[in-house]
Amino acid sequence: MSLLSLSDIRFRWPNATHDALQIDSLDVQANERVFLYGPSGCGKSTLLSLIVGVVAPQSGKLEMLGQSLAELSSAKRDQFRADHIGYVFQQFNLLPYLSVLQNVTLACQFSKTRTAKAIKRSGTVAQEARRLLNQLQLPGELIDSPVNELSIGQQQRVAAARALIGSPELIIADEPTSALDKVNRQRFMELLLTEIEHAGSSLIMVSHDEQLLEHFQKDIHLPSLNKAVQHGLD
Ligand SMILES: Nc1ncnc2c1ncn2[C@@H]1O[C@H](COP(=O)(O)OP(=O)(O)OP(=O)(O)O)[C@@H](O)[C@H]1O
């Protein structure tokens, strides 16, 4: 089943003289894990922004779960994202003064769909947050601490739990392991992938670390896909 499908996409940043993205076709299937890579500036973050709807293409079609996102009102699009996409970004976007538990459960406050899935899995949203944090090996005594008192590696686990809670169909991760050393990177990836598999989610992950490729079924070298790069940006 197709989860995400892009066709004939053209995207240009405001005031830019060239397109940042020209993509004829890109499909991601349900349960698929996609590794997106390529040199700095080839459009990886731009493509993620497009997929999550932070920016809209000037032309082309983007469908998720059979729904064309451009056809939704902006409020409905926000709701669609909250229901179906979990994010782990480089700068984790955690709310510093909220506790670990509050940061994780926040993802469900904006989505009845994810709340229902979390309750189905563990009885309550808080219990599901605890289960995920435990699976991701965050020490239990930190659960009520403000996240700004955690190490970077610990914050990464909180961000992962927040993305995973309520099993959204798509997890988007932008360099989620960049602040971790080699041992912790492998471990974090294994934990993340185990939970993604349990949830039945798809993953699109951007990374410069090609050692992580082994964890993925599909890899996309963006400069090969993105004709804006092939045409050369001077
Ligand atoms: N917010 C923005 N406004 C204008 N131009 C932007 C913006 N973000 C990115 N760009 C431009 O779009 C192009 C692609 O950048 P993008 O950040 O998507 O590349 P990337 O592959 O993610 O790079 P990196 O690996 O360095 O993060 C670049 O030419 C960049 O200057």
From TrEMBL:
SUPFAM superfamilies: P-loop containing nucleoside triphosphate hydrolases (SSF52540). The lineage of its organism: Bacteria, Pseudomonadati, Pseudomonadota, Gammaproteobacteria, Alteromonadales. SMART domains: AAA. Keywords: ATP-binding, Nucleotide-binding, Transport. GO terms for molecular function: ATP binding; ATP hydrolysis activity; transmembrane transporter activity. PROSITE patterns: ABC_TRANSPORTER_2. Pfam families: ABC_tran (PF00005). InterPro entries: AAA+_ATPase, ABC_transporter-like_ATP-bd, ABC_transpr_LolD-like, MacB-like_ATP-bd, P-loop_NTPase. This is Methionine ABC transporter ATP-binding protein. GO terms for cellular component: plasma membrane. It comes from Paraferrimonas sedimenticola. Residues 4-233 form the ABC transporter domain.
